[in-house]
Specification:
54% of the residues lie in helices and 9% in strands. The chain is of the alpha+beta class. It has a single domain, classed as Cytochrome P450 (Cytochrome p450). Strands 1-2-8-5-3 form a 5-stranded mixed sheet. It has a 3-stranded antiparallel sheet with strand order 4-12-9. Helix 11 packs antiparallel against helix 12 and helix 15 runs parallel beside helix 19. It starts with a helix and ends with a strand. The chain binds protoporphyrin IX containing FE. The site of protoporphyrin IX containing FE has 25 residues, from helix 10, helix 14, helix 15 and helix 19.
């Protein structure tokens, strides 16, 4: 049983969940505290309005809970690259090297990285193109479909299960339970969700055990087999499963949301959709970068100060957190002209921070960029008449930002 399951089954969990919620409501509605406002329905709908207010208060501001937050692209980037800051492992969910600092972080990240290198990736292009093609074939038979469930969600699942070497027969189950856990990355919102999480956590654990046993017996040319070969020497006992788990779910709730958020932005800005469909090959990579800047799926991450330090004229104490608002960094007027304007042919002076920065810079980004570019290009080529055809629904959660439904007609 995982640490999370034990914790979530206690009555204390229910009490702390509801106490935390009540606290957030108080801070948001009575104290008008921006970090809490981001967690309200209105804040989730339009976090960018909250970021604008936060920006007026300075580049680094103290939160009601005694930590710091920043909306500045420059400060986010500096904190994420600064070795005086680090991460700590989540108590409820072991996210492998995402929750580790050097040297353990470096050791494990180095083992995963070759799977996403420019040498390995071209092998995935054909798979991605054929998956995107098949999904669009299926979607176009009805003329109407949901961009999220019919297109965006199945794509990263198919790609990552192939990369990890999950047998086709099991990929449906991995996808189902991985999605439940991925959906909880933003925090557990209800007891029902906690129960579903615990059940999927246990199922996923059993599936992993079976798969690791298979690959110990019959190694194949995939990432899991390579990690198993490194066990003992570079992968310590207990490190394999969290690492494979991280690789499985990291691409689930991110790539899907870039496609959803990006297609929504394109269809809400018909001149931009028109530009893309006129020149999909040249503009698809740019549309992807603009979607990542304009409405990124990971709105925030945070770093803990490992020592007392000074930042932007403030004293930061060891143990205090700095929340780096990546979604706000993408709208920073010091970096982007007309930051609230969605324009796919931008020439900006700096890269967005949607993939973070520094030591934890997304290890899967070359794969994600390739998937997203192919998805946007083929969508524009094959469905030039795409239009929104029903109510758009957003997923709950404020750290991970994405759509639940985006009904369209082709
Ligand atoms: C557009 C899609 C994606 C976005 C926006 C995204 C975003 C991010 C961000 C923001 C982080 C760093 C979090 C932090 O600094 O605390 C991260 C880390 C990571 N991502 Fe991604 N990601 C995407 C796709 C993927 C894919 C497809 C994979 C793998 C299959 C992946 C694997 C990882 C891993 C393993 C880490 C941890 C890196 C480390 O700690 O060194 N990501 N991602």
């Amino acid at each position: 049983m995982s640490a999370f399951s034990k914790f979530s089954q206690t009555a204390g969990f229910a009490a702390s969940l509801y106490a935390q919620r009540a606290g957030t409501q108080y801070l948001a509605h009575v104290r008008r505290e921006p970090m809490a406002m981001l967690m309200t329905r209105k804040g989730r709908e339009d976090p960018y309005a909250v970021y604008r207010r936060m920006r007026e208060r300075g580049t680094l501001t103290l939160t009601a809970r005694g930590n710091w937050s920043t909306t500045s692209h420059r400060v986010c980037n500096a904190v994420l690259r600064d070795r005086r800051f680090g991460v700590v492992q989540d108590e409820q969910l072991d996210l492998s090297f995402l929750g580790m600092n050097a040297p353990d972080h470096t050791r494990l990240r180095r083992l995963a990285q070759p799977a996403f290198s420019p040498k390995t990736l071209p092998a995935f292009r054909t798979r991605i193109e054929s998956t995107v093609g098949e999904l669009l074939d299926r979607a176009s038979t009805d003329g109407r479909f949901d961009v999220v469930s019919g297109f965006a969600a199945p794509l990263p699942i198919s790609v990552i299960t192939e990369l990890l070497g999950i047998p086709d027969a099991d990929s449906g189950e991995f996808a189902e339970h991985g999605a439940v856990i991925g959906g909880a990355l933003d925090g557990i919102q209800s007891l029902r969700q906690a129960a579903r999480f615990a059940a999927s956590d246990a199922k996923l654990h059993a599936l992993f055990e079976k798969l690791f046993e298979l690959r110990r017996r019959e190694p194949a040319d995939d990432l899991i087999s390579r990690l198993i070969a490194a066990e003992g020497d570079q992968v310590k006992p207990g490190e394999l499963e969290p690492m494979v788990f991280l690789l499985l779910i990291a691409g689930f709730e991110t790539t899907v949301n870039v496609i959803g958020n990006g297609v929504l932005a394109l269809l809400n800005n018909p001149d931009q959709w028109e530009a893309l469909r006129a020149d999909p090959e040249r503009l698809a990579p740019k549309a992807v970068e603009e979607a990542l800047r304009y409405d990124p799926p990971v709105q925030a991450t945070s770093r803990i100060a490992l020592e007392d330090l000074e930042l932007e004229g403030h004293q930061i104490k060891r143990g205090q957190w700095v929340v780096t608002l990546l979604g706000a960094a993408g709208r920073d007027p010091e970096v982007y002209d007309h930051p609230d304007h969605f324009a796919i042919d931008r020439q900006d002076p700096a890269d967005h921070l949607a993939f973070s920065s520094g030591a934890h810079y997304c290890v899967g980004q070359p794969l994600a960029r390739m998937e997203l570019t192919i998805a946007m290009q083929l969508l524009a080529e094959r469905m030039p008449q795409l239009k929104i055809a029903g109510p758009v629904h957003r997923k709950p959660g404020s750290t991970i930002r994405g759509l639940r439904h985006l009904p369209v007609s082709a």
